[in-house]
Amino acid sequence: MTGIEFIDDYPMDANGHNLSNTDPDRQFYASIPEDFAGWGRGMPLTGWDWEGTDNLERAACYQRQRPLHMKVRLRSSLPAPTARTFTLTVTPTVDGSTTVLTAGTASVNWPAGSQEQIVPMIATGGTLPNEVSRYHVHLTWSVSGIVPGGTVNRTNHKIFGIYNDPRDPDDSTAAGTALSPVDGLTKQRLDKVTLAIGGASRRFPTPAAHDLETLVWHVGRHVNNSGPPHFYGGRNTLVRYGASGPVTQLIDEWVMWLNGRSIPPDSGVPKRPWNVGACITYVQLMKTMLASVGVQARRAWVYPKTNLMPDGSTVTLTENDLVEVEGGPSVSPQKHTFTDGGLVYPSEVKLVGQPQAWGPYIDNFEACLYYNGRLIPGAFSTNQYPASVQNGGVGFPNAFSLFRWWQSIRQNGHPRFMVWFCASPGGYFDRHGTFYSSPYAIDAANWLPVP
Could you tell me the sign of the dihedral formed by the alpha carbons of 34, 38, 39, 45, in that order? Predict the structure, then answer.
């Protein structure tokens, strides 16, 4: 046996390496000096996955609960003197188990005079488990019905099992759409996402719907808690390298895991490392990671709002008033127009944080990952979440609970609070509609109440 090609699996790309001259990344990455060390992607992997020696860089990716299908190349050192028929058997072990997948056979017809034959398909028995996982698969190949028979080779492989067809990471619908063509799958990326989902074992069972909620939580926790090197993403879902550098596609936002360095920022933005990003870019990374294993999550935006109007009247806010889920109805910031000193101030409710060198820290929204009604905010360690949310292991149950927690967080000891803010002509208003030139001059008793 001299060749094995996994078939009926998902296509994989070679691991990218930005500093390599032999296998450069296919997208925009050649102009970025950082070493992507596998987070980029190289050319599509084609042809035989195994040719005489084990190569775990040539991983295969299958959907869960399916057998392994392979094409096999057999070679004889001498031409066959006569035609003959025999049986090829593959006996698998999966992470040391002989029961997950079982032996499969294929009949081989070998013509007289031939030294090489290709068996177009042999399948293992059994199926991969109902889980998102990574496996070390050992295959023992043997022949029978021919002399001499017995074992002809033993091969080792890395196999990934994913939940469903990889999803389009830019799709905004609840069900999502299958990514077509499938691209962006590399061994390093699947190594990373199975580590996030399953921990050291790289295995996470998914027999029930609730299991997917926990799976999504694991990815959110991994992204937020391991301090992914950010990037200059601003408020956008796309990642741009510096002030005028290339923009990566959503499928390639794995570059978020790169270490960054200091480069010239955009005009008017303080100098920071190039990897400084925002909550929405964390969320997009979570969404992209989940999409790669066939789990569709959506982006969502929770807006700061108050239930007390400046005239003293109250409004009733619902969940749909606070959170906008992509693909669903749009939600607007809470607005009110003030008049002061002969000037008109069209204002919106904003969340104010600690003072910055360029002025007050103003938050327009908190971007979240949304799955089955649960919310996981981006760019906050889950260790900061309320104990009930951490212990629940699925995220915040609704926008109200997330919003109350979000506004309560202190930035370097500085409280966060809501005000009415007008960008032009510029100014801030408290709960009674009193004008201030600085939000920090507003007494805490006059901050906008939280619903």
Answer: positive
Which among 444, 261, 437, 420 has a CA at the least distance from the CA of 349? 420
Chain position carrying tokens 């759409």:
177
Pairing of strands 60-63, 150-162: parallel
What is the model's pTM? 0.92
What contacts 133, CB < 8 A, 6 or more positions away? 64, 160, 161, 194, 198, 202, 203, 204
CA angle (379, 381, 384) in 5-degree steps: 125
Q: Which distant-in-sequence residues (6+ apart) come within 8 Å of 14 by Cβ?
A: 23, 41, 42, 43, 44, 45, 57, 186
Residue type, 69: H
- The candidate with the shortest Cα–Cα distance to 436, out of 370, 341, 297, is 341
Residue among 392, 393, 399, 391 at smallest CA distance from 373? 399
Sheet holding 366-371, edge to edge: 323-325, 298-302, 366-371, 374-377
Collapsing DSSP to helix, strand or coil, 78 comes out as coil
Look at residue 417 in the predicted model and tell me its pLDDT: 97
Domains and CATH numbers, the chain: 3-162 (2.60.40.10), 300-370+401-451 (no CATH)
Q: What is the pLDDT of residues 242-291, one digit of tens each?
A: 666 677 788 888 877 766 555 555 555 555 555 556 788 889 999 999 99
Please state whether 397 falls in left (phi above 0), alpha (psi between -120 and 50) or beta.
Answer: alpha
Crossing angle (nearest 10°) for helices 279-292 and 187-198: 100
Q: What element of type H or E holds 195? A: helix 187-198
Cα-flanking dihedrals φ and ψ of residue 322, to 5°? Answer: -95, -35
CA distance 290 to 297: 7
Distance CA 25, CA 11 (A): 16
- Between CA 149 and CA 88, with CA 66 as vertex, the angle to 5 degrees is 10
- The token pair at 438 is 């600085």
Tell me the pLDDT tens digit for each residue of 286-308: 999 999 999 999 999 999 999 99
